[in-house]
Amino acid sequence: MENVDLTFSQQIDSIDTKLVQLLNERARVSLNLEKAKEGSYEDNENNENVYVSGKENQIFDRIHRLNNGPLSSESLVSIYKEIISASVSSQKDLSIAYFGPLGSYTHQAAIVRFGDSINYLPKSTINDIFDSVEKGHTTYGIVPFENSTYGSVVTTLDRFISCKTHILAETYLRISHCLLSKSKFSSINKVYSHPQGFGQCQKYLDSHLKEAQRIDALSTSKAAEIAASEPYSAAIASITCAELYGLEVLGKDIQDAKNNVTRFFILGSSSEKPSGNDKTFILFTVDHQRPGALCDGLSVFKDHGINLLKIDSRPSSQQPWHYVFFVELQGHKEDEVVQKALNKINEFCLDVKILGSYPDQRPS
Question: Chorismate mutase domain spans which residues (predicted)?
């Protein structure tokens, strides 16, 4: 039996040796590819994105096609995300600003998307993330955009009105809320969370902690940080925060909708090239004195056969009862039909702004 074990062990050692060599060879080729790209670019705008979401998707699709087991495709994709993360970080001093502190859902979404090898910088507010990218302090930023049950994150929408960044990619994360505390359940008189967290757990709170005071925090992880230092308080946050801040889990999966998903946008200084399956996000205003102005603008997309995926609005800071409209549509801003539609919409709408085009990552 010992000889058999030794033989298998030697085989594994041999494979590991080859893997290390191949991984480093892959990293060198990737680095040479990036240098070749830098040398061929004629303008700086195209030289911004080390992280290319569309190319990453092609790699993962190829893994699914090549895989014959016994490892699952999901396991291989997770491994390759870390390989890509390590490779990207070796090419450039890459940094990503996220809505913190440590352990927030935005932080988790960033790690799922970029891997563990990247330099992550927590920011106290969503506006700080936009500022960090705009001023070049970080390469990218990641912000929460909307939740499947509680809707849009208005702070993110509002900042898009004045931002100079572009949406580079989207990513989705399943949200599982927990009730966390260092105190006994019966003694809790205060609950901290982000407004989205409260909104997603209303039924649980009304049923189990109806008398407890609900106090807004900047993020769910900040709520956990506060609850860890205050007796008789609890937080609605992730199970990751329980581990990070030394809290007990008093309730798991307490969100009202079990299929609770949040979408995040990754921000950069430019958008990606078409992947073949993209979305574009724009904003505009209309002349509110002209009847049918909004209808005329939206009809442009119908006339060009473009599907609209999301429509939202926010008050404008220009004057009372004046609104900014947000539209997410299928297609890339470089697609001919999208370009024609965007040119046409300028006849009916004002202040048209393209926020970015990015690969469609909607969960199947």
Answer: 1-95
Domain boundaries, position 147: 48-174
Return the structure tokens found at 51.
């992280």
**Interatomic CA distance for residues 82 and 105, integer angstroms:** 19
Q: Which pLDDT score is estimated for 47?
A: 47
Identify whether the C-beta of residue 190 lies closer than 8 Å to the C-beta of residue 181.
Answer: no
Question: Is residue 76 situated within a structural domain?
Answer: yes
Examine residue 267 and state whether it is found in any structural domain, yes or no.
no
Shared-domain flag, residues 195 and 133: no
The answer to whether position 364 is within a domain reads no
Residues 192, 232 contacting (CB under 8 angstroms): no
Please, what's the largest Cα pairwise distance for the chain? 87
* Token pair in block for residue 187: 């003694």
Tell whether 205 and 279 lie within a shared domain: no
Residues classed as catalytic: 262, 264
- Clarify whether residues 140 and 198 are in a common domain: no
Closest CA to 105 of 200, 227, 213, 230: 200
User: Per the confidence metrics, is the pTM higher than 0.85?
Assistant: no
Pairing of β 95-99 and β 119-123: parallel
Query: Nearest to residue 117, comparing CAs of 57, 51, 53, 73?
Result: 51
Q: Are 179 and 247 in contact (CB under 8 A)?
A: no
3-state helix, strand, coil in the chain (%, to 5): 45, 25, 30
- Sequence-separated (6 or more) residues with CB below 8 Å from residue 320: none
Stronger pLDDT, 339 or 40, i.e. the higher one: 339
Number of structural domains the chain divides into = 4
- Do residues 148 and 261 touch, judged by C-beta distance below 8 A? yes
CATH of the domain at 204: 3.40.190.10
Q: Identify whether residues 287 and 224 lie together within a single domain.
A: no
- Report whether 245 contacts 103 (CB < 8 A): yes
Question: Would you place residue 129 in the very low, low, confident or very high pLDDT band (cuts 50, 70, 90)?
Answer: very high
